[in-house]
Amino acid sequence: MKTQRKSIERSIRFARLSPGRFVGLVLALTLPLATLPGCSDSSDGPAAGSQHFVQLDGPSASQSDAESDSTTLGESRLFLDPLENVAHRGVRLVEAWAGDDGVDYSAVRDELVTDGAGGFALRHLEALTPVTPSEPLYGLLKEHRQAFYFRYMMFRPIDQALFLRNWQVSETGMHYTIAGRPGIEVRISHRSTPAANHYVIVMDEDNGLVLRAERSDANGVLRYRMTYESVDLAPDLSSVVFHAPTLVETPLDPRDSLDKQMGFEVHTPRIVPKYFRPVEVSRVAEPGQKNWIKIVYSDGIDTFFFLQEEVPVRPDGTPINVSLSAPVPVDPLFPDTRRSDTLHVRDFGLVTVLDMNVDARHTFLMGRQGADQLLDIANSTLPEDYPR
User: d(Cα 253, Cα 256) in Å, to the nearest integer?
Assistant: First the structure.
């Protein structure tokens, strides 16, 4: 794997950016999402069965057999998805620790409102540490991207079968009062590394709402904590403006060719993080912009994203490379990603983001994996004839 990382770093103009510069951005992070891979049995990445990766050989692991263990009370409450199905208004403190030792700290306060029937609204209140970009723009971005944050970045089981297969739940016997609500503490540990890779959550004893959630990485370093500071279970919703989708997301059929459905050659990962399987496959359309293909992989709780922008093609189907001298739109949060052959990796504590542009093919990888793992996955998306 070390050789492959050197290969991709040598082939692409590479920048491993300082987490301190971007640490506040993670709590507003959201990207267009979209798709599942046409998986290849061959790979020049790490072999299947290696420590961190598996090769893909089927459409969906959510179709796999789940563990036969009977569910605990904590599991049964989580499977009811209280985040979405318990109407409430709450002020939350959200903290993240980035860097190798979790020394880069960021904290923001926001307000979440749900109607108990799928409607939600997430509003930025204040930054308690410096954020990038400036706080007014940060708040706007977070609200603009609230659907992604609500669906994927808040603690909740993503796939029940994968959750039962990869995670184990135990009640610690500890009880807390958080935001005036009685809660019971539950530890959710990954079966592969139960002593380190885990969440500790406090669930409302009456309705299962997660009042506090902490995430530690495989090295036992605290990376994320969310704590409700106030909870209103009978909120006045008369003035709430709930989220309305601005992107059109269309599910794709993983049994059919993704290239055919998207209209261009999709370069999907040939390897994915171990224990992860694809759970969502879709096309995301930005009004007046290009389409994106999105693949969401999950191990039951954590998610890993592959996103690739539609590639412009000539009438004969060959890609049109973007000239570096031509004026192109630049995202102030992700500069250089629309220039040819660039690759950036950014650690935000809660997630690591890799953005790559090779031969006009713009690709994002995002997950709780470290930079080295993302580089290996990025390497597996490159065509066989790409210069190594």
Answer: 6
Question: What is the rounded distance in angstroms from the CA atom of residue 152 to the CA atom of residue 158?
Answer: 8
Model pLDDT for residues 78-110, shown as the tens digit of each residue? 878 899 999 999 999 999 888 777 778 999 999
Express the helix, strand and coil content of the chain in percent, nearest 5 each: 20, 35, 45
What are the residue ranges in the chain where pLDDT is below 70?
1-74, 312-340, 349-350, 387-388
Q: Where are the alpha helices (DSSP H) in the chain?
A: 2-11, 19-22, 73-79, 82-85, 135-144, 146-148, 160-166, 258-262, 371-381
Distance set, CA 222 to CA 103, 210, 313, 353 (Å)? 10, 18, 45, 19
CA 223/CA 219 separation, integer angstroms: 10
Helix extents (H) in 46-178:
73-79, 82-85, 135-144, 146-148, 160-166
Residues 1, 160: Cα–Cα separation, whole Å: 32
CA distance 169 to 175: 16
Tokens (6 digits) for 169 = 């739940």
Report d(CA 49, CA 319) in Å as an integer: 34
Identify the CA nearest to 375 among candidates 387, 365, 385.
365
Closest residue by Cα to residue 217 from 182, 189, 244, 254: 189
The one-letter amino acid at 82: P
Reported pTM:
0.76
Residue 151 is classified by DSSP as I
Query: Cβ-count burial of 298 within 10 angstroms (0-12 exposed, 13-18 middle, 19+ buried)?
Result: buried
Which residues are CB-contacts of 109 (< 8 A; sequence separation ≥ 6)?
Answer: 91, 92, 93, 94, 125, 126, 127, 128, 229
